[in-house]
Fold this sequence. Notes:
- It comes from Aliidiomarina taiwanensis.
- Keywords: Cell membrane, Heme, Iron, Membrane, Metal-binding, Repeat, Signal.
- By secondary structure, the protein is mainly alpha-helical.
- It folds into three domains: about 140 residues; about 110 residues, Cytochrome Bc1 Complex, Chain D, domain 2 (Orthogonal Bundle); about 120 residues, Cytochrome c-like domain (Cytochrome Bc1 Complex, Chain D, domain 2).
- Helix content is about 40%, strand content about 5%.
- It is built from 19 helices and six strands.
- A two-stranded antiparallel ribbon has the order 1-2.
- Helix 10 crosses helix 12, helix 14 packs across helix 17 and helix 16 packs across helix 18.
- The protein is globular and about 75 Å long.
Amino acid sequence: MNKAIKVTIVGAAALLVAAVGIAKSVPYWFAPKMDNPPTVNIHDPELIAKGEYYARVADCVACHTAPGGKPFAGGLGMQTPLGAIYSTNITPDPETGIGNYSYADFERAVRRGVRPDNVSLYPAMPSVSYMIAKDDEIEAMYAYFMSAVEPVRQDNQASTIPWPANMRWPLAWWQLIFAQPREFAEDPTLTAQQNHGAYLVEGLAHCGACHTPRGIGFQEKSLSNRDSEQFLAGSVLEGWYAKSLRNEGVGLAIWSEDEIVEFLRTGRTHHTAAFGSMSDVVEKSTQYFTDEDLQAIASFLKTLQPRSGYAVDWQPNDDTTTAKLRSGNITEPGEIIYIQECATCHRLDGKGAPRVFPALAGNSIVFAEDPSSLIQVTLAGAKMADTKYDMMAFTMPGFYHLSNQDLADVLNFIRTGWGNHGSTISTRDIARMRRVVDHAPEHYVPQAAIREGAHHE
């Protein structure tokens, strides 16, 4: 072997060893455990109650509970570009959960994304958001998890990410590059209420985890509105498009503060409804927010300016669809399929039924710049959030049985009907989303845990 090649190989190997060594040591110096952690009275009823509320704000239960599983026992499958990862058991079980975590262990995992064994958590854990949470909030959450959550013995499920991509040590480099320590900074141009809303949105509520575009390293491109206009500008995760929350035509420009509050509290307005992961967020989290927190969030969101080059407002075209459908002159494939499959619920005028069947006319999800959510909800169906504010939670059936061409035809009809104006959906778009639906990860719920849950109930 050529000497130069040998030197190159040896050098590359040395660099790799150095990278691994540094990565394994990163959590020690970059995310150290607390030197003098406070003593937390985990049996204080008032502290536990506060912790339960903060855990609701942080939406811990939605991610750490698999459908049909025990609360906080983990097993929820989340699809990534590399494979599926599963949420972990965060019940106080000492063997499979966090029962042996000290407060310093808990704080470090929540705020810095590092386990007690100095292994970094996957970026699906929104530690970059939780980092700005106040000390008393983290302490209260610790008391709640340690004293009020039922321990569940359930092992964590390994990811399906193949080797070598499943190696954890590179995550330390991710932490070093994308999870620099930060604190919440109030914006002097905002009111006290709006700054409180910004604190919730950037912190425990971690809205950016879904609604902010991700970069090449799966990092959020912006963690606050002070950083860039990419904050809350919309993103696709697991085939769902979390829409822009900025005040632009394809975002929240047509939403009032009261409508934002109503949506977060109930998962519905007279025009639209939450679906997909947002339905879980409303059902498990935001319906429990105080009026003060909901008003603060809505007030803050309405301060976000549109991105450069995006229209400030959205105006519908003239509605020629309703009259044509009512005339019975149905000739186009998309029109025919709509009459056959959709009109019974969404009506000929596209206005649906308030708080029962979402409107299609003027619904920002329908004409969103990215049609992923519209395609997926049509293919796979969806269930409304079940809250105390409405008597029933309705389920939309999926239309997976329709061909790619039929789905493209009807969705293009909907995206351009009743004055809507959205980009064209192709059969390739449908095929891509069909693959996403086909490869959705199965959630991990051991049969023993199901039997145990049934026994306790």
